[in-house]
Amino acid sequence: MRVRLKDVADHAGVSVKTVSNVVNNWEYVTDATRERVQKALDELGYRPNLSARSLRTGRTNLIALALPRLHEPYFAELADCVVRAAEDHGLTVLISQTDGRREREQQVVSGFRPQFIDGLLFSPLALEWDDLEEIPGHPPVVLLGERLAAGGAADHVAVDNVAAAQRATQHLVELGRKRIAVIGAPPSKTARTASLRLEGYKRALRKARIRLDKQLLLPVNQLHRADGAAAMATLLDLAPPPDAVFCFNDLLALGALRTLQERGVAVPSEVAVIGFDDIEESRFCSPSLTTISPDKKALAGLAVAALVQRMSVAPDAAPQELHAGFELVERESTMGRRA
Amino acid sequence: MRVRLKDVADHAGVSVKTVSNVVNNWEYVTDATRERVQKALDELGYRPNLSARSLRTGRTNLIALALPRLHEPYFAELADCVVRAAEDHGLTVLISQTDGRREREQQVVSGFRPQFIDGLLFSPLALEWDDLEEIPGHPPVVLLGERLAAGGAADHVAVDNVAAAQRATQHLVELGRKRIAVIGAPPSKTARTASLRLEGYKRALRKARIRLDKQLLLPVNQLHRADGAAAMATLLDLAPPPDAVFCFNDLLALGALRTLQERGVAVPSEVAVIGFDDIEESRFCSPSLTTISPDKKALAGLAVAALVQRMSVAPDAAPQELHAGFELVERESTMGRRA
């Protein structure tokens, strides 16, 4: 038999209204009461009637997450964190893959009417702010990772890419490397994240009084293993080759490691390698990969919290710029195998 | 200014009705006309008004894909194939992560009302057939990869897991291996895919007249790299250790390779390793991983086509069992580095 709110209220010794407040995640309930009600909900196995709730509140409790590519491990891991963060707010996440194509990105924003979803978390690659402004009645949007090409006014959650890239480059400098190459340099000015990372790299070189050698900056078409492998082959043909490589994501670095192994180049003694993302694979590959680890849980948590704010109490507040933390994770590809 | 169907019709020299038929992907249009209209649609940049279309056809043109874990590369790659296959039918995919928890799986089926989505592709881990029957008015469902625990009547798309596992084991036998271990043996009878793969392994051993040694069958809690690494350590402590390992997915195999490298065990000369899934990582790791490659494109294509059938012409047809192909991909972890 279905457990009703009344059953939970009796079990917890509170009013039905209080149970309802807890179930709907409203704020005017004390922590103690919330805990007592939650315990009763758990013990009785109460499942909310989602469509009734939707009718009552005018909400669907669904949010959408639109990402360029799910089969890139970084996005898949981030999506997982978003699903968990949303669950803490009683929200279910629907994920949509845009391939970074403008047409699909427009469709995501215009296709999700408010009667479908309460809000949208979005990592746009091609969309511009004008596109978003043009679409009447789109749901509240929070940008995750990437900004819109033409600035604009939406909450934006990311790591400090300049500082993180500077930290990565500085690590290679501290190991005594002088010819530090980049794989993943921005192919154009619209590659915003890559441009920020390049800026961090340049700052670290300037601080170490190392001259920038443009030969060592390799752009890539995509941020995949195959692109990293090809770029590394190009770098090894330079005379002299680099003694370190900063790859702008882990996939590129994993491809570069494969080329180094095929060519019989010792890592890290001849070429040290560092990545960016800290995907799970980087802990298990051989040699394991030194990388910048963005705090994905914090990114997801901040993004969902910002969206919940927009959806409820502060739809028209000034847009916020939110930064999640990062750390340098030192592994074998720069530090060598421990004895 | 918005491009209307009338504009496209004028441009292509056909009637508005014909353009509408093409846009709605209806079948009574010749290929030549369809091409001419598509060209006009592309040239004028026509974007369908989705909600108007939805009102007219009673369809949303959204389907949902519910998977256990997006951050497992196999599921992420499969999701990518499903998004592409659905696009060919003019459908947009929303992806939902269930974690394989029964409660979330129930929610997926009951939460997606027909007014949200036209159909559901589903890889259930915990849900039973009764759960699905109990939910009135759920959308058409096609099962992808995993079946429901208690049989039942829905279309099911998968690879032939028994045949594929037999092929993998036979490959190790052909290399002269005698002590072939398994990492990922079913921890319980509800692990249906693992049970099928174990059956294929046993068949290959029987055919080669190799006695089954239960010591060599290692169950795991999860199918992750860390579980594979730990299981490999256990196997290396056996006397004598195995001379080959069949891991029931690539992630387990990648973890096993890491342990072998840490312990200084030569791959494949001392221990040959084979996986299952052919995720992209397996092509780029060192040594690269021999694996069974399920035809993910075919899996996705068959699943979407079956769902489209259910949604339109044959909602009540007898349930089908559909198999996609697979192939053995021989790489360094069993064949060694080529000179």
Helix-and-strand structural type of chain A = alpha/beta
Instruction: Output the helix-strand order of chain A.
Output: HHHHEHEHEHEEHEHEHEHEHEHEEH
The general outline of chain A is elongated
User: How much of the residues of chain A is beta strand, in percent?
Assistant: 15-25%
CATH fold-type name of the domain at 161-294 and 328-335 in chain A:
Rossmann fold
Oligomer: homodimer
**Biggest pleated sheet of chain A:** 6 strands, parallel
Biggest interface pair, residues each? A-B, 42 and 40 residues
Output the CATH homologous superfamily of the domain at 161-294 and 328-335 in chain A.
Response regulator
Per CATH, the architecture of the domain at 161-294 and 328-335 in chain A is: 3-Layer(aba) Sandwich
* CATH hierarchy, class of the domain at 161-294 and 328-335 in chain A: Alpha Beta
Spatially, the strands of the biggest sheet of chain A line up as: 2-1-3-4-5-11
Q: Which percent bin holds the helix content of chain A?
A: 40-55%
Query: How many β-strand runs of chain A?
Result: 12
Any idea what the radius of gyration of chain A is? 24 Å
Unreliable runs of chain A, pLDDT <50, ≥5 residues?
50-56
